[in-house]
Design brief:
Structural class: alpha/beta
Protein name: ABC transporter ATP-binding protein
Strand order of the largest sheet: 1-11-10-4-9-8-7
Bound molecules: adenosine-5'-triphosphate, magnesium ion
Shape: elongated
CATH superfamily of the domain at 3-95 and 186-265: P-loop containing nucleotide triphosphate hydrolases
Pfam families: ABC_tran, BCA_ABC_TP_C
Organism: Streptomyces liangshanensis
Mean pLDDT: 83
Number of helices: 12
Largest sheet: 7 strands, mixed
GO molecular function: ATP binding; ATP hydrolysis activity; L-isoleucine transmembrane transporter activity; L-phenylalanine transmembrane transporter activity; L-valine transmembrane transporter activity
CATH class of the domain at 3-95 and 186-265: Alpha Beta
Number of strands: 11
Distance between the termini: 18 Å
Keywords: ATP-binding, Nucleotide-binding, Transport
Helix content: 40-55%
Amino acid sequence: MTTDTTTKDTAPATAPGDVVLDARGVTMRFGGLTAVRSVDLTVNKGEIVGLIGPNGAGKTTFFNCLTGLYIPTEGEVRYKGTVLPSKSFKVTAAGIARTFQNIRLFGNMTVLENVLVGRHTRTKEGLWSALLRGPGFHRAEAASKARAMELLEFIGLEAKAEHLARNLPYGEQRKLEIARALASEPGLLLLDEPTAGMNPQETRTTEELVFAIRDMGIAVLVIEHDMRFIFNLCDRVAVLVQGEKLVEGDSETVQGDERVVAAYLGEPFEGAPGDEEAAEVAAAEAGAARSGAAGSGAAAGSAGTGSAENAGTTGDASKEND
Ligand SMILES: Nc1ncnc2c1ncn2[C@@H]1O[C@H](COP(=O)(O)OP(=O)(O)OP(=O)(O)O)[C@@H](O)[C@H]1O
Ligand SMILES: [Mg+2]
């Protein structure tokens, strides 16, 4: 079902060492609902990859599968060649950091403290060192603080280091989340709607910020509904529709694909995810209507049984795709 319309057919194959993220056949089911269905996605060194799709397409769920928040029902995720551990703090330690669609900062902590929290996977000082507060601990603390301040400068929030996070305007809270994610020194950064709620000026600055992050050697996978942002920024864009990857390619390819436009507008199109199930439902309903019209006894009963079975199966399938 997945259609790869990448135009760079002639581009040299990526060397194995250049693949930062390799997700294969990732499926995530919640009871009867398949939120992500057999999705393959790679992110290579130096790339900014976009993940777009209508509301409820499964984008955040896919991110959760990449970061150990969810264990995929099927499939495998590798980071730099190694299968991901199943706990999110271990995933962060391995090198994948993220921001959240719904901002998750410690509101009553300062801006600086929030960034320091992000550094904990990188500090080697253990419990005893922290409790005894020996010279090793103080050195490590000073180094962490210096790095956190550097990151605040990088995102333009150094002047607000001592402000409480909850007092920052919304756009700055989103940037602070990025700084906190960067504090874990990741090799891959996942951004879930980084410009949601931002004004055009803030969005523009965030765009520059993401380019700068890429230039620091960090690969980026970004979910966003702002298409201008996505198409300006990304080397490659994958489109999720009803949990399935519909198209993947460069900005031009994706923008020019009629199925992407149709999926966003909610128009039916040939080969759409869930299309076969929808056709089966329609056929079953038509069958049921016909047998209802025939109206009588045993014959209608047996026809009715057949279509009821159909309707039963397809009914579940269509629920999956809601
Ligand atoms: N923990 C969960 N339990 C049950 N269903 C879930 C869970 N998380 C997500 N879903 C469902 O999975 C589907 C995909 O949701 P998801 O949040 O991944 O979409 P999305 O593409 O991120 O949408 P949006 O653009 O609105 O953020 C939705 O139908 C959602 O209701
Ligand atoms: Mg989402």
